[in-house]
Design a protein that fits this description.
Order of helices and strands: EHEEHEHHEHEHEHHEEE
Number of strands: 10
Shape: globular
Number of helices: 8
Distance between the termini: 39 Å
Strand order of the largest sheet: 1-8-2-3-7-4-6-5-9-10
Strand content: 15-25%
Structural class: alpha/beta
């Protein structure tokens, strides 16, 4: 299923359709302020396991990332020091993934890793979906096996390629190719793990 949502004014009916799929444990592909991503309700363990299997990821060994709608939402699922809060306040919403210690609110599938990547993208579509769902969304980039870049930027081609594997694709216009900048905030000695889109302030 391909659902068109406009970032400036997301249609509540279309938003509800997507949120229903997430609540039912479905997988969706959606736009962010960087690349298109695959996600599910981050608190639905069965959906998380399904997405990890699809992407060939071992959740016990790989860093998982979630999208939150804002700071109060984010601090429920990760432990944020004062220094990390100040850094994130300057840079969010934006194209950054901050690696933080997990809080006890996340399911056990995350806690075995003791850390989680957190995003608050500057994209109204995904932030609206997270707010309406009421839970964070697990997020993994859509990557190409064959380096055909259109696949990961054009929502219609993404839908064509992934329609057998996911339940719904959100068409939010053309996506970008550059991933987020990843910053480790596990202690107050912050480190850029991967430089992507966006300059850290």
């Amino acid at each position: 299923m391909l659902v068109k949502i406009y970032p400036e004014n997301p249609n509540p009916r279309e938003v509800d359709r997507v949120v229903k799929v997430l609540r039912d444990g479905g997988l969706i592909i959606y736009p962010t302020d960087t690349v298109y991503a695959i996600g599910c309700d981050a608190l639905n363990v069965r959906a998380v396991e399904r997405i990890c299997k699809m992407k060939g990821v071992n959740p016990q060994k790989s860093n998982l990332s979630i999208i939150c709608s804002d700071f109060s939402n984010l601090s429920e699922y990760a432990r944020v020091s004062n220094a990390a809060y100040k850094l994130m306040k300057r840079n969010l919403p934006g194209p950054f993934t901050f690696i933080l210690p997990t809080s006890s609110r996340l399911p056990k599938i995350y806690k075995d890793r003791k850390e989680v990547g957190v995003r608050v993208p500057d994209n109204n579509i995904i932030l609206t979906l997270v707010r309406e769902l009421g839970n964070p969304i697990l997020t993994m980039s859509v990557h190409d096996d064959d380096e055909v870049v259109e696949y990961s930027t054009d929502p219609e081609l993404i839908h064509e390629k992934y329609q057998q594997e996911v339940d719904l694709v959100v068409d939010g216009g053309y996506g970008a190719l550059e991933p987020s900048t990843v910053v480790s905030c596990l202690d107050d000695d912050f480190e850029i793990v991967r430089q992507g889109k966006g300059e850290l302030l």
